[in-house]
Amino acid sequence: MNKIVINALDRKSVINKNIYGHFSEHLGRCIYNGIFVGENSDIPNTKGMRNDVVSALKNINIPVLRWPGGCFADEYHWKDGIGAKESRKKMINTHWGGVVEDNSFGTHEFMELCSQLGCEPYINGNVGSGSVQEMSEWVEYLTFDGTSPMAALRETNGKKDAWKVKYWGVGNESWGCGGNMRPEFYADLYRQFQTYLRNYGDNQIFRIACGPNSDDYNWTDKLMQIAGTYTDAITLHYYTVPHNWPKKGSATDFTAEEYYTTLAKSMKMDEIISNHVQIMNKYDPSHRVGLIVDEWGTWYDVEPGTNPGFLYQQNTMRDAMVAAATLNIFNQHSDRVIMANLAQTVNVLQSVILTEADKMVLTPTYHVFDLYKGHHDATLLYSYVENETVGTEEFSCPKLHCTASQADDGSILVTASNFSLDSDAPVSCKLEGVNLGNITARILAGSAQDYNTFEDPNKVQIVDFTAIEKEGDTLSFTLPPCSVIAITVKG
Ligand code: AHR
User: Fold this and answer.
1) Atom of ligand 1 nearest to the CA of 349
2) Is the pTM value of this prediction over 0.90?
């Protein structure tokens, strides 16, 4: 019997809903075809945005969307993407697949998308090949209400009133595709760029500096030392790759060993965050500066026969397990981790949605975001798991993994996963300080290699789960192998 103990009287940090954020780059079929098809498309759309995709994303209460990249961000010049569509510049997307970028999706379209989704925009500015003036004018174009050259340009393009844009990233992966900089150089550049990101009216900018790749602790140290007092948050990128880069492995055809390796590698996120947080604590003991994991997820070989530059991969129950584990880790670190953005929303890497022409499927990862949506802005509760381990000698992970939180209305959400490939997990879950009133549960379960296709879109889906026994303050249930459950307890 595996044991979970939750203490509702031991309340921790608030789980910022932005931890459940997403990331959409001009890469492959993420923006074009995946989200944006243009107003003249036969695919049902509203102002060019696919209705099916917008409605699916709204169902998981997408809180924030990062755009336009990724590596694309440091090659993107925002003025190419405004004004009459026919006269927008056509260019080659040199980073991703060498295809023509016609700039038909630009600033106005992104803001329209966020308004349809009801989510916060998070714009990543160009440091690598851009200028201070360019980024500063983008802020002015979007957020200045009054007499100014950029406000006038915006009005010419059909938008009189300014938008609100809180989240601004200053460069992406400046240690790599964003300019191959050293941390000292970037930190100084960051200080310069952020000076000219002005707060206009009541639009208060939340400044985000480019943080480290994975376990590059030196980057965090230098960045915090030189620029920590000038930023509201720093970013972290960490991808789960089952093998040693550049060998990645298939998204759908994998062994038990590869399954456990993938999970164990995804759970390294915990150690990596803890170590970066320790460094941040040295320079920022009051936790003023947030950590934003604005790129995370699995990265496999592209699907056979697809453009290698498009990063299109399928998504199985293995990915659902990675999502469950990673989101639990973010929840547990929610005193510092204030946002995270899964890479990438549609048709790229660990997507929540796949599309093909007018068809759409929701991936197993999507369903995890659905099961976890009750954690948005809820208060993390203390939880303890008496556990076994599963996996191989080199790559092992806990069998059971969970988060418990309490929403403002008093209801408690417990999400728990059984990471074993082949054995049930009988669980006793004790909830201290809770009146166990009405209990409902939903579960996602399957074989690790199960996935949804356009022919069989509901092979993996959430179903109701009623096999829960209640005795005193304890719930008992059995989690099948490779599953994630969401139990809601109302007092
Ligand atoms: O998400 C794909 C790419 O991965 C992004 O463009 C880049 O930031 C990262 O290396």
Assistant:
1) 1
2) yes
